Amino acid sequence: MTATAAASPRSLSRSHSPAIRLALADLRVGLVPRAPGFVSAYWLAPVDGTGMSVIVFDTKEHAEEALRYPVPPLPGVTPLTVEMRRVYASA
Question: Which of 17, 9, 5, 7 is nearest to 41 (CA)?
């Protein structure tokens, strides 16, 4: 399995957090599971203004394909880094 890990600083104030969560549900949570090879996905709460997502795919090729797929931007969120990592273990 291969995971994509992305870090994104939030540029909106804390008062916009509900809007970001709503957009996340509309623009990611419903879309990402449809990707070929999808295994699981996690969107982590921000720490010091930086949120993270980890999306796991069954193969490196599916992870690479997903990274090339254009997705609608989340309001007030700009990707900082996106990395691909091999999954060594899961439970």
Answer: 5
Sheet order of strands, 81-86 included: 38-47, 50-57, 2-9, 81-86
Inform me whether the pLDDT recorded for 64 exceeds 90.
yes
Q: Do the Cβ atoms of 45 and 21 come closer than 8 Å?
A: no
Per-residue pLDDT, averaged over 24-40, amounts to: 85
The span from the CA of 77 to the CA of 74, in Å, is 6
Q: What is the pLDDT of residue 14?
A: 55
Q: Domain limits at 63?
A: 2-86
Query: By C-alpha distance, which of 2, 1, 4, 12 is closest to 78?
Result: 12
> How many structural domains compose the chain?
1
Q: What is the pTM of this model?
A: 0.81
Closest CA to 1 of 39, 46, 36, 27: 39
